[in-house]
What does this fold into?
Amino acid sequence: MGKKTFKDWFLATRPWSFPASSMSIVTSGTMMLWVAAVNGFHFDWINAVLALIAMVFFQTGGNLASDWHDYVSGVDKPGEESVQILTSGLFSKKEVAWFSAAAFAVACGLGFIILARSGWLTLAFGVSGFLLAFFYYFLKFNALGDLCIFLEYALIPMLGISYVTIGRIWWPVLLLAAIVGPVTVAILHANNARDIPSDRASGIKTFAMVIGLKASRWYYHGCVILPYALLVAGVIAGLFPWTVLVAFLAIPKAWGIIKDVDAMMDGEHPFSLIDVRTAGLQLNFSLLIAVGFIVGAIFGI
It folds into this structure.
C-alpha cells in the first residue's frame, strides 16, 4: 500500500452513488420550500443545507462500512466486478474502518447541530437512520436490503427534512418518498442482480437472489417507471405543483437504461456500470423534480 492521493480517498467513498441519499434531501427540501411559499410557513434554509451535508457524510460512512464488511466476510474477492479499494490492496481494513468512523462522526456532529436548532423528534429520525445503517449488512444478506435502502435513503430523511425545515410533518412527503425512493432502490437492486452468482457462492441471500434474474428485470422496470405515474397522481391530487412534470424530460434516459438492463439480463452483453448509470438517472430525475418545486415556489403555483 503506497501513498494515497486525495483522489484515491475521494473515489473510495463511491461519489457516483451520492444521489442515492442526497436527492432525497434535495427533492423533499425543495418540496418544503414550495409548501412554505404557498402556505406562508417559515422555511429553515440552514437546517436544509446542514441536512444535505450530513446525509452525504452519512452515506459515505455507510458505503465504506459496507465495503469493509463485504471484504471481511469474503463477499468481495479480487478479480470480481466489485468495489476494489480493499481487494486491490490500495487501502487496508484499518484505514477503511477509520475513514468510515470519521464520516459517521461528521454526520452525527451535524445532526446534533440540527437537533439543537429544531426539536427532539429530529433525534428519532437520526437514531432510526443510524440503526438501519448499522444493521444494513444483516438486512442486506437476508433479502431486506431493498427495504432498508428505501427507509434509510427515502422515507426517514424525507420525513425528517419536513420536520426540520418547516417545523412539522407534512404528510404528502410520503408520496414523494414513493416516487424518489424506488429509483434509489433500483441502484442497489441493479448491483445485486449483477452479483447474484458471486453472492450465491458466498452463501448470502439478497432480494435479487430470492426473486431471480427474470423477476429482477420487471422489478427494476417498476422501480424506474412507476415513479412517473405517481408523480402525475400527485399533481392531479394537488399535492405537487404541475411544474414538477418537467421530470418527464428524464424518460429518454430511463428508457435507454431499461433497454440495456434487458439486454444484460438476456445475456447479450455483461452487466457493466448499470448501478452507476442508475445513480445518474436518479440525479437527473430528482434534480428536475427539484427544479419543478423551486419554480412552483417562486411563482406561487
Observations:
- The chain has one domain: 15-299.
- The longest helix spans residues 207-236.
